[in-house]
From TrEMBL:
Gene3D superfamilies associated with the record: PAS domain
Location of the PAS fold-3 domain: 6-87
Keyword Acyltransferase tagged: no
UniProt name for this protein: PAS domain-containing protein
SUPFAM superfamilies found in the cross-reference section: PYP-like sensor domain (PAS domain)
Length: 115
Protein backbone atom coordinates (compact mmCIF):
# COMPACT_ATOMS: atom_id res chain seq x y z
CA UNK A 1 0.00 0.00 0.00
CA UNK A 2 1.45 3.37 -0.98
CA UNK A 3 1.39 6.68 0.86
CA UNK A 4 -2.03 7.57 -0.49
CA UNK A 5 -3.48 4.32 0.90
CA UNK A 6 -1.75 4.69 4.27
CA UNK A 7 -2.91 8.29 4.72
CA UNK A 8 -6.46 7.35 3.74
CA UNK A 9 -6.53 4.39 6.15
CA UNK A 10 -5.19 6.27 9.20
CA UNK A 11 -7.93 8.85 8.61
CA UNK A 12 -10.54 6.07 8.45
CA UNK A 13 -11.11 5.79 4.70
CA UNK A 14 -10.65 2.92 2.28
CA UNK A 15 -7.81 3.90 -0.09
CA UNK A 16 -10.04 3.98 -3.17
CA UNK A 17 -12.66 6.16 -1.44
CA UNK A 18 -10.64 9.38 -1.16
CA UNK A 19 -7.63 11.16 -2.56
CA UNK A 20 -5.93 12.61 0.54
CA UNK A 21 -5.63 16.28 -0.39
CA UNK A 22 -5.11 19.16 2.01
CA UNK A 23 -8.77 20.11 2.56
CA UNK A 24 -10.26 16.77 3.71
CA UNK A 25 -7.15 15.77 5.63
CA UNK A 26 -6.84 19.15 7.40
CA UNK A 27 -10.52 18.98 8.36
CA UNK A 28 -9.76 15.84 10.41
CA UNK A 29 -6.94 17.34 12.46
CA UNK A 30 -7.71 17.70 16.15
CA UNK A 31 -9.00 21.27 16.74
CA UNK A 32 -6.18 21.96 19.22
CA UNK A 33 -3.58 20.97 16.59
CA UNK A 34 -4.97 22.73 13.49
CA UNK A 35 -3.00 25.98 13.92
CA UNK A 36 0.24 23.99 14.22
CA UNK A 37 -0.58 21.98 11.08
CA UNK A 38 -1.59 25.11 9.13
CA UNK A 39 1.76 26.68 10.10
CA UNK A 40 3.64 23.54 9.01
CA UNK A 41 1.82 23.48 5.64
CA UNK A 42 2.57 27.17 5.11
CA UNK A 43 6.26 26.57 5.87
CA UNK A 44 6.36 23.68 3.38
CA UNK A 45 4.83 25.85 0.65
CA UNK A 46 6.99 28.91 1.29
CA UNK A 47 10.37 27.76 2.58
CA UNK A 48 10.30 24.11 1.58
CA UNK A 49 12.57 21.45 2.92
CA UNK A 50 11.99 18.43 5.07
CA UNK A 51 9.36 18.57 7.79
CA UNK A 52 8.12 16.65 10.78
CA UNK A 53 5.12 16.88 13.05
CA UNK A 54 3.44 15.04 15.89
CA UNK A 55 -0.24 15.77 16.10
CA UNK A 56 -3.67 14.23 16.53
CA UNK A 57 -6.30 13.40 13.97
CA UNK A 58 -9.92 12.41 14.38
CA UNK A 59 -10.70 9.50 12.07
CA UNK A 60 -14.05 8.90 10.39
CA UNK A 61 -15.19 6.79 13.38
CA UNK A 62 -14.47 9.69 15.77
CA UNK A 63 -11.38 8.03 17.28
CA UNK A 64 -8.55 10.38 18.21
CA UNK A 65 -5.29 9.02 16.81
CA UNK A 66 -1.78 10.33 17.55
CA UNK A 67 0.48 10.40 14.51
CA UNK A 68 3.99 11.40 13.59
CA UNK A 69 4.42 12.71 10.07
CA UNK A 70 7.82 13.07 8.40
CA UNK A 71 8.33 14.12 4.85
CA UNK A 72 9.67 16.44 2.23
CA UNK A 73 8.26 18.59 -0.52
CA UNK A 74 7.80 17.51 -4.12
CA UNK A 75 8.87 19.97 -6.79
CA UNK A 76 8.35 20.03 -10.53
CA UNK A 77 11.12 20.46 -13.11
CA UNK A 78 11.13 24.22 -12.47
CA UNK A 79 11.49 23.96 -8.70
CA UNK A 80 7.86 24.86 -7.98
CA UNK A 81 6.46 23.05 -4.95
CA UNK A 82 3.62 20.79 -6.15
CA UNK A 83 3.05 18.56 -3.12
CA UNK A 84 4.66 16.59 -0.37
CA UNK A 85 5.70 13.03 0.25
CA UNK A 86 6.56 11.15 3.40
CA UNK A 87 5.23 8.85 6.07
CA UNK A 88 2.42 8.82 8.61
CA UNK A 89 3.29 6.75 11.68
CA UNK A 90 0.35 5.94 13.94
CA UNK A 91 1.69 6.06 17.51
CA UNK A 92 -1.69 5.92 19.27
CA UNK A 93 -1.19 2.51 20.91
CA UNK A 94 2.44 3.20 21.83
CA UNK A 95 1.57 6.58 23.34
CA UNK A 96 -1.45 5.15 25.22
CA UNK A 97 0.72 2.36 26.67
CA UNK A 98 3.41 4.84 27.78
CA UNK A 99 0.82 7.09 29.47
CA UNK A 100 -0.81 4.09 31.15
CA UNK A 101 2.55 2.83 32.45
CA UNK A 102 3.40 6.30 33.81
CA UNK A 103 0.02 6.62 35.54
CA UNK A 104 0.43 3.14 37.05
CA UNK A 105 3.88 4.10 38.38
CA UNK A 106 2.58 7.36 39.89
CA UNK A 107 -0.40 5.61 41.50
CA UNK A 108 1.85 2.86 42.95
CA UNK A 109 4.23 5.47 44.37
CA UNK A 110 1.31 7.46 45.81
CA UNK A 111 -0.16 4.37 47.50
CA UNK A 112 3.13 3.74 49.26
CA UNK A 113 3.24 7.32 50.53
CA UNK A 114 -0.41 7.19 51.68
CA UNK A 115 -0.10 3.84 53.47
Amino acid sequence: MGMVGAVARVHGYEPAAITPTTKPILSQKHPDDRAHIAHTLHAIRTTGGAFGSRHRIIDTAGTIRSVVVVGDRITDDHGTIVGSTGFYIDITNTLDAAVSDTVDDVVAASRGAIE
